[in-house]
C-alpha cells in the first residue's frame, strides 16, 4: 500500500501561498510583454513607444519587475521540494521515484505549454533541475549552500555555454534565420494555429542561450537556497526569522538599489563596460541586485503579514498561490487569446501601459476566480492532476 500522502489544507503555510501568488503576478507582468512581442523583435517593438506614460511604465518594469520574480518562484520551488522531502523522510518514505514522477509530469506540462500556448515556458527547466536537486536532498547543509553560492555568483555562463554550443557546432540563431519581425507578426496575428506552433518551437530553440545560460543557473542557485532553507525548517519560524534579518535586509537592499540605479544611468557609459569582461561583471552585479530586490519583496510581505494590521490586503493572494501551476498556465492561455490569430490578434498592438494594465486586470480576475474555486474544491485542476500522478492511488 502506498502511504505517501499529499499535503493537507491544515498543513499549508498561508504566507508561502501568498508568496507564490505574488510571484505569479510578477511573472505575468513580465511574460505579457513577451507574449505581446516576441523576444526576437522586442527591442525594436519597445523602442517605438515614446509617450511619457509608456516610458514611465518601461522604467517601472525595469526597476520593479524584470529579474525579480523568477528568482522568487525558483526559491519557493526549491523550498517546496525540501518540505516534501522532509515530510516523507520523517515517515521513512523518501525515495527518488516519488520526485521522478513529480518532475516527469512537470516536464510534460512544460512541453505541452511550449507547443500549444507560450514559448517562454520554464517548467521543463524546473523539472530537469528539480531532478538534480532531489539528488542533493540528503547532502550536508554546507555543501548545498556552497553550491548555491557558486551557481549564484559565477559570472561567465554565457561564455561557457557559448563554448559548449560551438564545440557541438550548434547555432541557435539558425532557427529564426529566415524570419523577420514583419513575418513573425503576420504568423502570430494572421497565420494558422499550426504555423504558430512551429514558430513557438523555433523561438524556443533560438532562446536556448538565454534559457540555459541565464535562467537555468539562476534557477539552480535559488532551488539550492530554497532547499537549504527548507532543510533548516525556516518555514516553522518565519516570524522570528523575518524579524532577525530586518537590519541586514534593509541595508543590503539599499546598497543594491543604489547599484541598480548607477548601472541603468551611469555605468553603461563607461569605457570598461564596453569590454567583454567588464560588461559581464557589471551585468552579473545587476542581476544579483535584482535578485536581492526580489528577496526584499518576500521579506516586506512577511513583515507586513506578521507585524502590521494589513493581513486582509495580502490574504487574497493565497488563493492564487494555492493553484500556482493552474494560474501560470491560464495566463499563457489568456496571452494566446489576446495576441494570436485564434483570438483577437492584438500582437504588437498593445502599448507597455496597456499590457501592464491588462496583466493586473487578469490577475484580479484570477484572485476572484481562485477564491470561488476553493469554495468548492480543495486544489486547482492541474494541481489535482499533478498530485494524482505523483501520489498514484491517493
Description:
By secondary structure, the protein is mainly alpha-helical. The protein has one domain (9-391). Helices cover 73% and strands 0% of the residues. The chain has 19 helices and no strands. It has helices at 14-36, 42-47, 52-64, 69-90, 96-116, 123-135, 141-153, 157-167, 181-190, 193-206, 208-231, 238-244, 246-265, 276-307, 311-314, 317-322, 324-339, 352-373, 381-391. The N and C termini lie close together (10 Å). The mean pLDDT is 93. It holds the Pfam family DUF418. The chain crosses the membrane at residues 21-39, 59-81, 93-116, 122-137, 144-165, 208-229, 250-270, 282-306, 327-347, 353-374.
Short description, anyone?
The chain is an all-alpha fold and 394 residues long.
Descriptive keywords:
single chain; 394 residues; 19 helices; 0% strand; globular; DUF418; Bact_Transport_Assoc; DUF418 domain-containing protein; transmembrane; membrane
Element layout with pairings:
Blueprint: H1 14-36, H2 42-47, H3 52-64, H4 69-90, H5 96-116, H6 123-135, H7 141-153, H8 157-167, H9 181-190, H10 193-206, H11 208-231, H12 238-244, H13 246-265, H14 276-307, H15 311-314, H16 317-322, H17 324-339, H18 352-373, H19 381-391
InterPro entries: Bact_Transport_Assoc, DUF418
Domain DUF418: 230-392
Pfam families: DUF418 (PF04235)
Amino acid at each position: 500500500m502506498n502511504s505517501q500522502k499529499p499535503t493537507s489544507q491544515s498543513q499549508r503555510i498561508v504566507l508561502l501561498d501568498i508568496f507564490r501568488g505574488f510571484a505569479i503576478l510578477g511573472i505575468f507582468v513580465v511574460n505579457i510583454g513577451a507574449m505581446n512581442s516576441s523576444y526576437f523583435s522586442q527591442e525594436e517593438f519597445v523602442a517605438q513607444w515614446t509617450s511619457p506614460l509608456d516610458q514611465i511604465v518601461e522604467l517601472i518594469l525595469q526597476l520593479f519587475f524584470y529579474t525579480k520574480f523568477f528568482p522568487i518562484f525558483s526559491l519557493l520551488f526549491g523550498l517546496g521540494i525540501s518540505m516534501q522531502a522532509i515530510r516523507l523522510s520523517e515517515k521513512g518514505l523518501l525515495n527518488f521515484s516519488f520526485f521522478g514522477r513529480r518532475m516527469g509530469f512537470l516536464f510534460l506540462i512544460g512541453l505541452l505549454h511550449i507547443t500549444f500556448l507560450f514559448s517562454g515556458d520554464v517548467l521543463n527547466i524546473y523539472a530537469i533541475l528539480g531532478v538534480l536537486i532531489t539528488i542533493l536532498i540528503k547532502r550536508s547543509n554546507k555543501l548545498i549552500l556552497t553550491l548555491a553560492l557558486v551557481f549564484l555568483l559565477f559570472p561567465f555562463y554565457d561564455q561557457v555555454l557559448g563554448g559548449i554550443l560551438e564545440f557541438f557546432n550548434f547555432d541557435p540563431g539558425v532557427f529564426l534565420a529566415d524570419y523577420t519581425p514583419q513575418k513573425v507578426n503576420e504568423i502570430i496575428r494572421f497565420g494558422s494555429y499550426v504555423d504558430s506552433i512551429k514558430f513557438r518551437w523555433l523561438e524556443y530553440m533560438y532562446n536556448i542561450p538565454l534559457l540555459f545560460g541565464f535562467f537555468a543557473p539562476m534557477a539552480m542557485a535559488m532551488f539550492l537556497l530554497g532547499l537549504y532553507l527548507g532543510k533548516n525548517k525556516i518555514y516553522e519560524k518565519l516570524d522570528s526569522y523575518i524579524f532577525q534579518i530586518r537590519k541586514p535586509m534593509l541595508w543590503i537592499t539599499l546598497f543594491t538599489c543604489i547599484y541598480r540605479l548607477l548601472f541603468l544611468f551611469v555605468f553603461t557609459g563607461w569605457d570598461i563596460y564596453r569590454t567583454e569582461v567588464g560588461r559581464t561583471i557589471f551585468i552579473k552585479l545587476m542581476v544579483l541586485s535584482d535578485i536581492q530586490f526580489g528577496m526584499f519583496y518576500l521579506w516586506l510581505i512577511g513583515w507586513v503579514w506578521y507585524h502590521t494590521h494589513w493581513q486582509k490586503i495580502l490574504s487574497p493572494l493565497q488563493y492564487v498561490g494555492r493553484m500556482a501551476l493552474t494560474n501560470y498556465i491560464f495566463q499563457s492561455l489568456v496571452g494566446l487569446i489576446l495576441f494570436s490569430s485564434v483570438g483577437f490578434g492584438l500582437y504588437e498592438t498593445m502599448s507597455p501601459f496597456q499590457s501592464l494594465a491588462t496583466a493586473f486586470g487578469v490577475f484580479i480576475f484570477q484572485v476572484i476566480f481562485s477564491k470561488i474555486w476553493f469554495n468548492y474544491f480543495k486544489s486547482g485542476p492541474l494541481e489535482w492532476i499533478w498530485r494524482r500522478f505523483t501520489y498514484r492511488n491517493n
